[in-house]
Amino acid sequence: MRPTRGYRVFQAVNGFVLAGVVVVTLFPFVNIVARSFSGEHEIRSGQVTLWPKGFNLTTYQNVMSDPLFWINYRNTVVYTVVATAISLVLTTCYAYVLSKHRLRGRALLVGVAVFTMFFNGGLIPNYVLVSSLELRNTLWAIVLPNAINVFNLLVMKAFFESLPTELEEAAAVDGLGTYGILARIVLPLSKAVLATMLLFYAVQFWNSWFAGFLYMDRQELFPVTVYLRNLIAGATSGTDITASSETALQVAASIQAVTIVLTMLPIMLVYPFIQRYFVSGVMLGAVKG
Amino acid sequence: MTMTRTPQRVAEPPTTGLRPRRRTWGQALRRDWQLYSLAVLPLLFFLIFRYLPMIGNVIAFRRYEPGGDLLGEYWVGLRYFEMFLNDPTFWQVFANTVIIGGLTLLFCFPLPIVLALLLNEVRTRWLKGFVQTISYLPHFLSIVVIAGLIFQTLAVDGVVNQGLRALGQDPVAFMQDPAWFRTIYVSSEVWQTVGWGTILYLAALTTIDNDLYEQASIDGANRWRQTWHVTLPGIRPTMITLLILNIGTFLAVGFEKILLLYNPLTYSTGDVVATYLYRVGIVSGSFSYAAAIGLFESLIGLALVLGANTISRRTVGTSLW
Predict the structure, then answer these.
(1) Are B278 and A126 in contact (CB under 8 A)?
(2) pLDDT at A236 over 50
(3) Which of A130, B217, B299, B313 would bridge with B319, disulfide CB 3.0–4.6 Å?
(4) CA dist., res. A251 & res. A247, Å (int)
(5) Which residues in chain B have their CB less than 8 angstroms from residue A109's CB?
(6) Which of A25, A94, A182 sits opposite B191 (nearest CB)?
(7) Is the CB of A109 inside 8 Å of chain B's CB atoms?
């Protein structure tokens, strides 16, 4: 079919619109990088748009020489590694159980998980629970309350269901128990979905801030996202009662820019490699559970 | 030892509608105890960190004191509910929630569909992939980073004000101005979610049978009419599913983002139920009062999902379950 004139016009307009989407999406990133390399005076006088003005690296040196920044950055790494490992194990175990259609009570086990997608206890009961379990100011306040993400669970369940049952049956005939089948047959076949889940959880925990903000009282326990949050809050709402007093001072725009760039850097570096896993994971999860 | 105990936990409630071959619970446990044992820790997680807080909501009906009994000291009936229903601030934040939630639904639901349709018309594969890759990007960042970008972009010395100055306008203190809060919230939400929202639609679009397009064009339908009569009906189940989900989370408007973006100057337009109950509960320590507000909010959310799902099943035959 030969494209009509109208269709060619549409294609051109479409190209412009999509180019606009790309520019609008990227603009804030380019701008923040430019600001992070610029001098404070040039930023304050509104000269920085897409290219650094008054180029310097001193702000990077200043932020990176702040011991608290490093402690919080390291906390984020530790929290992410521990939380991801625990979440991955628990999600894999439960997803595997849920994928066994012959299992008595399976529908109930699925229901227990899925119901929590639509109803949750709410902020206050969760806070009271975590506090009374004495998890405050420990790593566990970040790890345990979010140990299983039900969406991820359904993605994994869908993947396990897609595996050929004959393999497992053959292994069972050869005398392997459930643990053996899971460890020696299923998991080796599931490297792709395990890697995807690893990324899902790692990105989720790397980006999280609220649990750290809510349950950590001491600065040296914060994840770097809370460090960044306090910088922003300190600079914009001096009356915020939750901001600690030393951040209530005006924080230089360049310091904020540098901290933003450093906080998002790891994600930006791995983004090109992880993006397609996320896309396939979302599509797998969209298959009804 | 956990292995012998677990099965009983699973065994408690009787299930209906079982699979073909019926086994008694005793047989099922003997046969599948290893499988059930794998479910123990995850079930403990759900019971402690998901279902216990649901029960914990009884403090909305009981007087709770920090450090005291987890489930409160004594019954006070509906006192806390009466309190918030008579609280003018509650009604203001409720109105803010409905407005912000409504605007978010109005823009964040249809725009991914539009973007998906536009992307679907791109015939150059690498170009399509490139636009998708870029538009997904904001989805991967921490909400704190997003808030930081918003503050920097809209700062008095930020790029938006540079633009205004270039046009001869006075700079605007966007983040301190209640009149701007909703615009900033909703447009940043669109910026953040529109690309990611296209994934499922693009997947649904690839499943539409090409013959339908050929038949439509033989019948004389131009590109626009093909979109209207073939493409849109083709992605309708996806649209409805996502609409139900969006309606269900309608009142749970981005709590974390608002908490990061708002300040006392913008409370009048930006403060929503979730942020209000955060301040009442966590900051001021009125746990029972805040729990009552939270329970009210969750129940409305649940009613919205169930309602939307039922209406959709009765009218168009698509539902989540």
Answers:
(1) no
(2) no
(3) B313
(4) 7
(5) 10, 39, 43
(6) A25
(7) yes
